[in-house]
Design brief:
By secondary structure, the chain is an alpha+beta fold. The chain has a single domain, classed as Glutaredoxin (3-Layer(aba) Sandwich). Helix content is about 45%, strand content about 25%. It is built from 3 helices and 4 strands; from the N terminus they run βαβαββα. The chain has helices at about 10-25, 35-45, 65-75, and strands at about 1-5, 30, 55, 60. A 4-stranded mixed β-sheet has the order 2-1-3-4, with helices on both faces. The N and C termini lie close together (about 10 Å). Pfam families: Glutaredoxin. One of its GO terms (molecular function) is electron transfer activity. This is Glutaredoxin-like protein, YruB-family.
């Protein structure tokens, strides 16, 4: 399962989603722009309040990092 914690106006969030789309992976998007509870979840998941945060099979990736995404997808 892939989850992406993001906001609509974030360029790096768009890049993560586009990269996964090109690779043919499905994912769940959690938009954290409005919900205070979701922002708290991002902090619990990543230890930070920044987006994007991508969670892939238990691996947490902060920001847009193709190498880390690829590693997590190989598991």
């Amino acid at each position: 399962m892939i989850k992406i914690y993001s906001v609509d106006w974030c360029p790096s969030c768009v890049k993560v989603k586009s990269y996964l789309d090109k690779r043919g992976f499905e994912y769940e998007v959690i938009n954290v722009a409005d919900a205070h509870e979701d922002r708290n979840i991002v902090e619990k998941v990543s230890g930070q309040r920044t987006v994007p945060v991508t969670e892939i099979n238990g691996h947490v990736i902060v920001g847009y990092n193709k190498l880390e995404i690829d590693k997590a997808l190989e598991v």
